[in-house]
Fold:
Amino acid sequence: MNPRKQNVLTLIRMMVDLFMVMAAWGVSWFVRFYGGLEVTRGVPSTVLYLKLLPFIAVIWLAVFAASGFYRRSNRHRSAIIEAIDVIQSCAVATLAFITFTYFYEEYRYSRITISIFAVLHPIFIITGRSIVRKALRIYRKRSPARRTLIIGSGEFIETAIRMAQLGDVAANDIAGIILVGDPDQVESGRKIAAKKGYALFEDQTDWVSFFVDHPMQTVVVALPYKHFSWIDEQLEAIANQVPDVKLLPDLMKFTRLAAGIELISGVPVISIHDSPLAGVQGVFKRALDIFGSLVALVIFSPIMLVVGVLVPLSSPGPVFYRQERMGLDGRTFMMLKFRSMPVGSENKTGAVFATAGDNRATWLGRFLRRTSLDELPQFFNVLAGDMSLVGPRPERTVFVNDFRRKIPGYFRRHKVKAGITGWAQVNGWRGDTSIEKRIECDLYYIQNWSLGFDIRILLLTFVRGFIHKNAY
Structure:
């Protein structure tokens, strides 16, 4: 979609979200004080509740932005998946709002009003987004369709068709396809065109005559990288005859995750390994890490104190075990754990994975590993900024160097901070299990990161418990 149109749609979604959340606040106030519920201390001034609207706007926009709602297109996502994301992000925003009102000294707001608001505003926002989606669909149907020509090769034809059908506000009427490329790619494209019922045109040398005979409003060029010479030779002649030309670059052989385009001094630059946590996204994730690790340290401090006393009793030596691990961008850090083995246990075995029945661990160490309590000191790593609450589990440098030689794409997991828990762990891929499956989960997490996804993983960590058959 044209970036300007995309920005307009994003702005519309933001305004609708804000309107709906504010409307939900107003309705919640009305239901509480005029909806037949018992009022014991009189109806407060409306102004007191109106004063919170700017704060509500800031909190909800900040949380939704951190959740990635305005960073990705939601028009082609499942309505159910979007609703789940909305509910998760609304829960985070509500907690932030409750915290704010607790410290807001001017007035103690009705807890019933806030409770009603917590239930109503996700419904309002989901309804608002549904209205926007339906309005766009109606607008698209009523807009005059643009005659579109696709120039492509092989499987790129399907990508171009999908983009033409879904990629803009106005509809595209695919008038035909021109096949370019190797014979096998041309044949593949011919089958796709025949299957979908699109007309085929011959490759051209006289584009002026062609577009006079076949007027087009849009041309979509989708060719593999090795045929970019065709683009170099023909694109200018095509652009001189058609008002709208879209080029789908073949970057799949280069891009691996979170690719992005930015303008630097007016020059478009494509990042093929862009981090999803760049900019404000990283700020919100860091804020969650700091808040969450502080809360966890307070909650688990009695357990950590008891373990800290028992570790030296189980075997002589320090309470903590410091081990070099690799984290963000391949930088190493010293990860903390409660010591679960006697001092010097690795002198004979070297760096090896812990396995079931590992006889190096002490009696206490086996219990700590089984319950994951040996990982609790890593909340200090999170506070220090070396780790995150959620992310791929950090590995030892010696293992990383081995894995990156054997597993293509392994090192891409280092585009985000290592985590105490992660998508692989809550899906059971921990301990001495498939490295390939762990990488698959880690890359899925990176590609689909949002603040709501982090919270979902944290909740799953608690729901599914710390004890796991692969923890040893």
